Amino acid sequence: xxxxxxxxxxxxxxxxxxxxxxxxxxxxxxxxxxxxxxxxxxxxxxxxxxxxxxxxxxxxxxxxxxxxxxxxxxxxxxxxxxxxxxxxxxxxxxxxxxxxxxxxxxxxxxxxxxxxxxxxxx
Length: 122
Fold this sequence. Notes:
By secondary structure, this protein is an alpha+beta fold. The protein has two domains: 3-43, Arc Repressor Mutant, subunit A, CATH 1.10.10.10; 56-121, Alpha-Beta Plaits (2-Layer Sandwich). The protein is 47% helix and 16% strand. The chain is built from six helices and three strands. The chain has a three-stranded antiparallel β-sheet with strand order 1-3-2. The radius of gyration is 19 Å and the shape is elongated.
Protein backbone atom coordinates (compact mmCIF):
# COMPACT_ATOMS: atom_id res chain seq x y z
CA UNK A 1 0.00 0.00 0.00
CA UNK A 2 1.45 3.34 -1.03
CA UNK A 3 0.53 7.01 -0.54
CA UNK A 4 -2.05 6.93 -3.35
CA UNK A 5 -3.81 3.93 -1.82
CA UNK A 6 -3.84 5.66 1.57
CA UNK A 7 -5.19 8.81 -0.09
CA UNK A 8 -8.02 6.86 -1.72
CA UNK A 9 -8.89 5.20 1.60
CA UNK A 10 -8.80 8.54 3.45
CA UNK A 11 -11.16 10.13 0.92
CA UNK A 12 -13.56 7.18 1.01
CA UNK A 13 -13.51 7.18 4.81
CA UNK A 14 -14.95 10.69 4.64
CA UNK A 15 -17.49 9.88 1.91
CA UNK A 16 -17.86 6.28 0.73
CA UNK A 17 -20.19 7.42 -2.08
CA UNK A 18 -17.51 9.57 -3.70
CA UNK A 19 -17.29 8.87 -7.42
CA UNK A 20 -14.15 7.69 -9.16
CA UNK A 21 -14.07 10.97 -11.10
CA UNK A 22 -14.12 13.07 -7.92
CA UNK A 23 -11.49 10.85 -6.30
CA UNK A 24 -9.25 11.23 -9.35
CA UNK A 25 -9.69 15.01 -9.36
CA UNK A 26 -8.93 15.34 -5.65
CA UNK A 27 -5.91 13.05 -5.83
CA UNK A 28 -4.71 14.53 -9.15
CA UNK A 29 -4.47 11.20 -10.98
CA UNK A 30 -6.26 9.60 -13.93
CA UNK A 31 -9.69 8.02 -13.42
CA UNK A 32 -8.39 4.72 -14.77
CA UNK A 33 -5.64 4.75 -12.13
CA UNK A 34 -8.17 5.27 -9.33
CA UNK A 35 -10.48 2.58 -10.76
CA UNK A 36 -7.62 0.07 -10.96
CA UNK A 37 -6.51 0.90 -7.43
CA UNK A 38 -10.05 0.53 -6.09
CA UNK A 39 -10.43 -2.86 -7.74
CA UNK A 40 -7.11 -4.01 -6.24
CA UNK A 41 -7.98 -2.65 -2.78
CA UNK A 42 -11.31 -4.48 -2.91
CA UNK A 43 -9.84 -7.77 -4.20
CA UNK A 44 -7.08 -7.81 -1.56
CA UNK A 45 -9.54 -7.08 1.24
CA UNK A 46 -8.16 -3.64 2.11
CA UNK A 47 -11.67 -2.41 1.30
CA UNK A 48 -14.08 -4.94 2.79
CA UNK A 49 -17.22 -3.08 1.77
CA UNK A 50 -19.02 0.21 1.79
CA UNK A 51 -21.41 1.19 4.54
CA UNK A 52 -23.78 3.82 5.81
CA UNK A 53 -22.82 5.88 8.86
CA UNK A 54 -25.85 7.38 10.57
CA UNK A 55 -25.75 10.97 11.74
CA UNK A 56 -26.94 12.12 15.13
CA UNK A 57 -30.32 13.18 13.70
CA UNK A 58 -31.06 9.56 12.79
CA UNK A 59 -30.06 8.42 16.27
CA UNK A 60 -32.20 11.01 18.10
CA UNK A 61 -34.52 9.45 20.63
CA UNK A 62 -32.66 6.14 20.73
CA UNK A 63 -31.49 4.68 23.99
CA UNK A 64 -27.73 4.18 23.87
CA UNK A 65 -25.42 2.25 26.18
CA UNK A 66 -21.90 0.97 26.56
CA UNK A 67 -21.77 -2.66 27.65
CA UNK A 68 -18.81 -4.53 29.09
CA UNK A 69 -18.73 -8.30 28.58
CA UNK A 70 -16.59 -10.98 30.15
CA UNK A 71 -16.58 -14.15 28.07
CA UNK A 72 -14.76 -17.44 27.71
CA UNK A 73 -11.69 -16.69 25.53
CA UNK A 74 -12.25 -19.75 23.33
CA UNK A 75 -15.78 -18.50 22.53
CA UNK A 76 -14.76 -14.98 21.50
CA UNK A 77 -14.79 -15.48 17.73
CA UNK A 78 -18.26 -17.06 17.76
CA UNK A 79 -19.65 -14.43 20.12
CA UNK A 80 -18.25 -11.52 18.11
CA UNK A 81 -19.60 -13.09 14.92
CA UNK A 82 -23.07 -13.39 16.49
CA UNK A 83 -22.98 -9.84 17.89
CA UNK A 84 -22.16 -8.47 14.42
CA UNK A 85 -25.51 -9.79 13.17
CA UNK A 86 -27.47 -7.70 15.70
CA UNK A 87 -28.58 -4.35 14.29
CA UNK A 88 -28.54 -2.77 17.75
CA UNK A 89 -24.80 -3.34 18.16
CA UNK A 90 -23.03 -0.30 16.73
CA UNK A 91 -19.43 -1.06 17.75
CA UNK A 92 -17.47 -3.98 19.16
CA UNK A 93 -14.06 -3.51 20.74
CA UNK A 94 -11.84 -6.18 22.25
CA UNK A 95 -10.02 -5.24 25.44
CA UNK A 96 -7.47 -6.69 27.79
CA UNK A 97 -7.87 -7.03 31.53
CA UNK A 98 -10.99 -7.99 33.47
CA UNK A 99 -13.35 -7.24 30.59
CA UNK A 100 -13.09 -8.94 27.19
CA UNK A 101 -15.47 -6.93 24.99
CA UNK A 102 -16.79 -3.39 24.99
CA UNK A 103 -19.98 -2.84 23.00
CA UNK A 104 -21.77 0.31 21.98
CA UNK A 105 -25.45 -0.49 21.48
CA UNK A 106 -28.63 1.44 20.81
CA UNK A 107 -32.33 0.69 20.54
CA UNK A 108 -35.50 2.66 19.83
CA UNK A 109 -37.36 1.65 22.98
CA UNK A 110 -36.73 -0.03 26.32
CA UNK A 111 -38.61 -3.10 25.12
CA UNK A 112 -36.00 -3.48 22.37
CA UNK A 113 -33.33 -3.91 25.03
CA UNK A 114 -35.00 -7.09 26.27
CA UNK A 115 -35.14 -8.42 22.71
CA UNK A 116 -31.46 -7.54 22.21
CA UNK A 117 -30.57 -9.47 25.35
CA UNK A 118 -32.68 -12.49 24.31
CA UNK A 119 -31.33 -12.55 20.74
CA UNK A 120 -27.71 -12.20 21.85
CA UNK A 121 -28.08 -14.98 24.42
CA UNK A 122 -29.31 -17.51 21.87
